[in-house]
Inverse folding.
């Protein structure tokens, strides 16, 4: 499968460490085959807690391979930041979607599904389905 046609994944957290750790976990669970373009976008430019439209836009551009970009967020204001970027219309790559999914489980499902070469709709559906995962 051509790695240049995979859906890209951006993980937006209020913490740079959380975003990077979830990205590392999700990539590590793909089985070591295809490398899905995944980028964390956590915290602010100054390294503090929060979200940054500049970091999110840069992360989305870095994972864009022309097959779409799925953005997963951790908390409310991260959602608002991504929605504002989408509304502006020119800050994010064409085919970028904000995915309503749990952050950790959704990220893993999105990355594993993207590794199969699935399209953006399938990646989004797999991530959203993570809401139904039972733990007990």
């Amino acid at each position: 499968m051509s790695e240049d046609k995979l859906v890209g994944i951006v993980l937006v957290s209020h913490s740079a460490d959380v975003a990077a750790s979830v990205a590392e976990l999700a990539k590590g669970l793909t089985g070591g085959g295809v490398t899905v373009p995944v980028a964390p976008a956590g915290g602010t430019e100054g390294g503090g807690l929060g979200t940054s439209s500049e970091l999110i836009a840069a992360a989305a551009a870095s994972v864009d391979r022309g097959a779409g970009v799925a953005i997963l967020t951790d908390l409310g204001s991260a959602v608002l930041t991504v929605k504002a970027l989408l509304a502006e219309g020119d800050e994010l790559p064409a085919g970028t979607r904000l995915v309503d999914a749990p952050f950790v489980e959704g990220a893993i499902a999105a990355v594993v599904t993207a590794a199969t070469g699935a399209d953006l709709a399938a990646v989004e559906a797999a991530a959203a389905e993570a809401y139904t995962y039972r733990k007990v």
The chain has a mean pLDDT of 93.
